[in-house]
Write a structure and sequence with these properties.
The complex is a heterodimer of chains A (306) and B (430).
Chain A lengths: L2 H9 L8 H35 L1 E4 L4 E4 L4 H9 L1 H32 L4 H9 L6 H12 L6 H6 L13 H26 L2 H9 L4 H30 L2 H6 L7 H10 L4 H36 L1
Antiparallel strand pairs in A: 1-2
Helix pairs in contact in A: 2-13, 3-13, 4-8, 4-10, 8-10, 9-10, 10-13, 12-13
Chain B lengths: L1 H5 L5 H8 L12 H18 L11 H4 L7 E6 L7 E2 L5 E2 L1 H10 L2 E6 L4 H14 L7 E5 L2 H8 L12 H6 L17 E13 L15 H4 L4 E4 L3 H8 L9 H17 L2 E5 L3 H6 L5 E5 H10 L5 E4 L5 E9 L7 H10 L3 H11 L8 H14 L3 H12 L7 H5 L1 E2 L7 H15 L2
Helix pairs in contact in B: 3-6, 10-11, 11-19, 15-16, 16-17
The chains are: A mainly alpha (306), B alpha/beta (430).
Chain lengths: 306, 430
Amino acid sequence: MATGGGASSITEPPQRGRSYGQRKRLVPYWLMSPAGVWLLLFLILPMMILVYTSLQSGGLLTGGFRFSWDFSNYTDQIVQYKTQFVRSVFYSITVTFACLLLAYPMTYWIAFYGGRWKSSILLLILLPFFVSFVIRTIQWKFLLGDNGLIFGPLKNIGVLPESFRVLATPFAVIAGITYNFLPFTALPLYVALERIDKRLVEAAKDLYSNRVSAFIHVVWPLSLPGVFAAFLLTFVPATGDYVNASILGGPGTTMIGNIIQEKFLSELNYPEAAALSVVLMIAMLILASIYARILGTEDETLTAAI
Amino acid sequence: MTERDDRPFVDPGRMQEVLRHRLTRRSMMKGAGMGVAGISLASLLAACGGGEGSGGGGANPQEVFAGPPGDKVDFANWPLYIDQTKDNQGNVYYPSLKQFTQSTGIDVNYEAIIQSNEEFFGKIQPQLAAGDDTGWDIIVITNGRQFTVLTANEWVYELDASKRPNFDKNAVSFARDPAYDPGNKYSMAWQSGITGMAYNDKLSEPITKMDDLGNPDKVGKSSVGMLKSDMPDFVMINLGIDPTTSTPEDWKEAAKWIQWQKDQGTVRQYYDQGYVDDFTAGNLAATMAWSGDVLYYALWAGYSNLHFVFPEDGALLWIDNMLVPVAAKNPAGALEVMDWYYDPKIATEVTEWVLYMSPVEGVQDLIVKDADKAMEQGYKGYANKLYQTAKNEYLFPSQEFLDQTSFGRSLETDDEAEEWNNIFLSITQQ
């Protein structure tokens, strides 16, 4: 990294200030170092430990885990839990699209028509998320209970059949994650939409475009970077979520996050849990980069075209 | 105990209800989000360490527990698992521990931080493996896999059997010489309970046997809660298999039943905890249940529609045990605290509050006495609740009753644990 500057400052006797040029060259490195140390300590190092752990074998009852290049942790897990992997990705994609569908009109309205209330309305969206998301998820359980606040009265007046329920279904899990990840979608969308120069829309109208085609040809392409970011920020963490499935789900809604959590905390099988985490991480990386390839370039060309 | 006799009898029933926001010891909602973040780094580092720690290495108990006790004991226990009340300033305190401090001069730092055996074990395992102090002088762990690991690795001190006179005098039969810890070499019971079934009579027909949990005509569809960790043992007992000596063949038998029940479509969720919230909210018609949870709601909180059921073919017995981790700073003080709770008067204070099975003789009579006293002073409602508590067979089980219960399987090796997990988790994790 800072080979020139860093080394010389130690070996050379203290000088009365280095030349201006020398110092100037060092500045970027100094500015970079807090982030670098941070990444090293809290990203690279844990990641290495994770990979190291994932290749261990043994068990807590027989003297702990030992490093042994145990790749079967990977192969066995992938085979055994492919259903949950696929289910997680499916849930997560559904969630991401649901979030986009909900957040886009909302943030569009705020960005274009919010006026001086913009930040207040944005705060209103974020307000519920000041509370721990575990607690918020548990609240949904009260609201959506089979005979709870909403369905109890509806069942009493006969609108819903007695056996109707939402909890412990895939729908409940998907809806729960959607609710919990909405801000991750809304904020990047808002930033992108807010940046759009409103005069461009006026210009489109001047050129005899109607509202719909102005949106399709001007606003939508300009907001694509936001959509792109929102998709990633929602999709990636939603895939690993386990709180919603464990609180709102039932049999048949187990996600890969639940498996990892269970392996870590209940089975105390750290290597297998670590292996699954690595697989999930790599899978997300691959999916995200494929996505970036496809949409990233298109985005640029579109932006360039306009 | 003067403290106890002076205890203001100011509407104690209401005091109980106010203090006991009853999530209960086991159904306490584990902050699902907090667990993993807190534990993962420690566990990973632990896993790196290899964990071949020397542990106590058979330290001589007479030496470990010799000498005068230190002036502070750190006690880790489960939430809502000890008597508590408020002083005039509104500060919550634990009367039984306060009396201990008054009588011995030893301070006790009591923290209700254990929310699951696995999670707590994961937290302290790195220190134990390295032979370091965990910070706790007493920990409370249920009989089972973690308990076995702790004792087998000698990560807990062997207790000095000559220094627990109350225990020798007052321990009930099930707390003495348990199969998982012969001669109470390492452990003394804190409280105990039964895993049975319960139903809500507004939503379910009365149930009597385990098969009813898979019968949609009785309990309806998607309306039964199952307790993930206790389910294999519970099912084996009800199939007539003794879990403690069970083989993988037996486990597969149990798995068959679990699969059958799942195919019947009655299961709503496989719970770690939190089933009680769903049960009281009316989301579950019937459920596997821990005795104290249901007893609290049925006896003390006015949920007369909830009933605890001891299944016809038997139920699972578990015991939560006090242990002294190796390298604890104050083992002598810890043992004094542990023995203190085998004084029947002290044990009664705990039982009246937590409503689990006490490991101490004489508690039942003392509860009746307290009820009489409350009656005399005109607290009729409170007295009646105490009378019912004293009568309850799930709190004070007869020997025939206990004969129909069994401990769960304690997995002895990693291969066993893995096979067990493969058999059972492949059904519940789908």
